[in-house]
Amino acid sequence: MESTYKALVQRILLRWDEKRPSASGAAAMHPRLIIALAGPPGSGKTTIARRVVSDLNASPEPRRPKSIVVPADGFHLPLEALHTLPNAAEAIARRGVPWTFDGAGLVRLVHQLRASAGLHPVQAPTFDHALKDPVPCGLTVEADVDVCVVEGVYLLVDEEPWSRIAPLADDRWLVRVEPALARDRVAARHVAAGIEDTMEKALFRAESNDLVNGEYIVRHSEGRYDLLIDSIEELPN
């Protein structure tokens, strides 16, 4: 996987070099590159995003771009909001399906990331796995950030409001994973997070919910990515 990380870093550096000369107006003083990184649950996209950003920020390149990961997990609807829905039991059981996210809020954030470069910081929500709920303003994207790697499951799908994200990104990456590997990773994560108390229950939840979401993501992201990345077993959950 090391060669993949290196290739992704070089790809961003190339895109960054291409981005700077083309900027005009306020953006010419501080353009910003936005990468949309998507993939099914358990594909390893979070690990990829964190590693690539870490390597970028540690790069010996004298003009390396200041980079940050912007996770979309913070746009899960809070449990309190799910409890108010007419189908609250289904919403909680199937948390993670598209309609349990604030997709429009994520679209607004990506717009803000594009417009705020060099001007002002942007606050983004994060997700607290211990609380099992989003944390408002959990992340600050400073005005001088050059590269935002926005990572999340539905970033590239072709249905509203998610379909408005891809055109806002400078480069779109999709992570591909074998369903069995994704199932095992997600099930282990459910147990570790206390979502399920046995591996048997966790596997059932992964197969009946997360893998179904994964199939939807792959099907509805077809033809909407610039780069396809293969996830391998060495990636942590």
TrEMBL record:
SUPFAM superfamilies xrefs: P-loop containing nucleoside triphosphate hydrolases (SSF52540)
Native organism taxonomy: Eukaryota, Fungi, Dikarya, Ascomycota, Pezizomycotina
Organism: Colletotrichum sublineola
GO MF annotation terms: ATP binding; kinase activity
UniProtKB keywords: Kinase, Transferase
All residue ranges annotated as the Phosphoribulokinase/uridine kinase domain in the record: 34-170
Matching InterPro entries: P-loop_NTPase, PRK/URK
Name listed for the protein in its UniProt record: Putative phosphoribulokinase/uridine kinase
